[in-house]
User: Fold this.
Amino acid sequence: MKTEIETISGETPGIAYELIVHRLEGSDQSAPRVYIQAGLHADERPGVAALHFLIPMLEKAEAEGRLLGSVTLVPHANPIGAAQHLYGDHMGRFSTGSRVNFNRDFPVPDESGVRALDTAASATFAERRLKSRLLDLADGCPIVLDLHCDDESVQYIYAPEQLWPEMADLAACLDAEAALLWDVGADRAFEEAVFEQMKASAAGGDLSGHCVTTVELRGQNDVDAALGRKDAEGICRFLQARGVVTAKAAAAPRLADGFVGKPIRHVDMVLAPVGGTILFHVAPGERVEAGQMLAEIIVNPGRSDGTVAVLAPQAGFVLTRRIRRFIRMGDNLLKIIGDKAAVASREGALED
Ligand SMILES: [Zn+2]
Assistant:
């Protein structure tokens, strides 16, 4: 494995960021190339933990001649966001300088298929140069994994509808509990920008064997050695299934029992009807029926009419819930994958 530390200069004198890039060389030019990054939302750490365990596994495969496809790994994809602290709290999701979400607004190809990337010398914000560089590093890789997490959550993946069900092997290898299938992007997340470039450059429009995803490795606090190792092993199994790493013949990976794979328009974004203190009645991974109590919000503590009940808008699967227990009116309380579509159509990401 070769490691390079790239420098991203800041916007003002004396500031620079380091981007660590590991490259492992596969022995078979025809095997798929792979790009994996973690920590693009710099406050989401399960992916970093997974790469901590995956990197030695891949180094071993490379040393033993079992690595067929070349792999590029960026374990800290957002050193800019990693450095943002405000009054002691880490702010890793949005750039405090531009107010833009670090996983939005990536450059995509225009109608003629041409994509304009910034370079290290472009006179623009560091985060824009970083976004272009990440896309650059992922270019030419038919397999691209962007490791994220949600608030409190089961493990789930996003997948372009065009690549489903082929990408179900990833969900099976990771032991994911759900997949959200999207067809129309709108806010140019990394996954969407990579997929647009894949479509623009795929020979004859053939996308077979391609995989691009945002993997939500459970919740923000689901970071420990056992989960990190499990996720690394899951990614390894997937790389074996896709012929990136040699493997002994094994049974085809099976989706987890109760796996829920639905179009993203099935997601019911349950919002808080009032502000207050949350008492959850359900947890991610549970099935709920229409009208079931999801949570109570304490508005007026100790009074008989002091809470407001939040009921399930339809039957479905609880995907995520808010990690903090204080909420504003209108904030997202839970995400439920409804048995029925929750909205007629949905373009772009579920939240800011
Ligand atoms: Zn994220």
In short: DSSP finds six helices and 20 strands in the chain. Residues 142 and 324 are 37 Å apart (CA to CA). The pocket of zinc ion is lined by residues 41, 44, 103, 148 (CB under 6 Å). The longest strand covers residues 16-24.
